[in-house]
Amino acid sequence: MKRLFAALVLTLLPAFAMAATIGDDGLHKEPWMRDTFKDLNEDLAEANEMGKRLVVMVEQRGCIYCKQMHEEVFSQPEIADYISENFFVVQVNLHGDTEMTDFDGETLSEKQATRKWGLLFTPSILFLPEEVEEGATAQSAAVALMPGAFGPDTTLDMFTWVNEKRYELDSDEDFQRYHARRIQERQSEAAE
Question: What is the mean pLDDT of residues 81-89?
Answer without folding.
Answer: 98
